[in-house]
Design goal:
alpha+beta, four-stranded antiparallel β-sheet, 6 helices, 38% helix, disordered N terminus
C-alpha cells in the first residue's frame, strides 16, 4: 500500500534521506541505504524504484575530474538574444543541446537571456567555441564572458 507521502507527491523523511545518501554516493548498495535510513532492504528498494519512476532520481553517472580529461578552462557566458519569441527560444534551446562544450544552459530573468557554463581545454579553444559556435547559434545578439579562476564549490564533488 502506498504511503500518504507517495500519494500526495511529497517526499517523507525516508525518501529525503535516501536521496541525500544517493547524492553523496550513487553506487551505495541498497542494503547500506536501508541500514542508514532504518528500513529493511525490500521497502528501501521499493522506495528507490518509486523515486526513479516518479522522476525524483533521474539517473546515475560517474563524476569525473575535468582537469584530468584536459578540460581545465571554465567560462560563464551571458547571452543576449536578438529575438525572444517562443520560436526563437526553441531554436536556441535545440541548437545549444548540440554543443558538447556547453555543460549548462540556464534561461535567466534579468539583464541578459541565458547563462552558459562552457568548459574547454584552454583559452584558445574557448575563443574558438565562442567565436565560431556560440556566436553563430540562432538569435544570439551579444555575449559577455566571465572566466572562472577557481571552483570553490561544485555540487558534483
Amino acid at each position: 500500500m502506498p504511503t500518504e507521502s507517495a500519494l500526495s507527491g511529497q517526499l517523507d523523511q525516508f525518501d529525503r534521506k535516501i536521496v541525500d545518501l544517493l547524492l553523496k554516493d550513487g553506487r551505495l548498495p541498497v542494503t547500506e541505504i536501508a541500514a542508514q535510513v532504518g528500513l529493511s532492504k525490500t521497502p528501501c528498494q521499493n522506495r528507490v524504484n518509486r523515486l526513479r519512476k516518479e522522476g525524483v532520481i533521474l539517473g546515475f553517472r560517474a563524476v569525473v575530474d575535468p582537469e584530468k580529461l584536459g578540460q581545465e578552462q571554465v567560462a560563464f557566458v551571458e547571452v543576449k538574444m536578438t529575438d525572444t519569441t517562443e520560436a526563437a527560444l526553441r531554436d536556441f534551446n535545440t541548437a545549444i543541446l548540440q554543443v558538447p562544450q556547453i555543460e549548462q544552459c540556464h534561461m535567466i530573468a534579468g539583464a541578459f537571456d541565458y547563462l552558459l557554463k562552457v568548459r574547454t581545454k584552454n583559452m584558445q579553444d574557448y575563443r574558438h567555441i565562442l567565436g565560431e559556435v556560440i556566436s553563430s547559434l540562432p538569435h544570439v545578439g551579444q555575449t559577455s564572458t566571465h572566466v572562472s579562476m577557481d571552483s570553490v564549490k561544485d555540487r558534483a564533488f
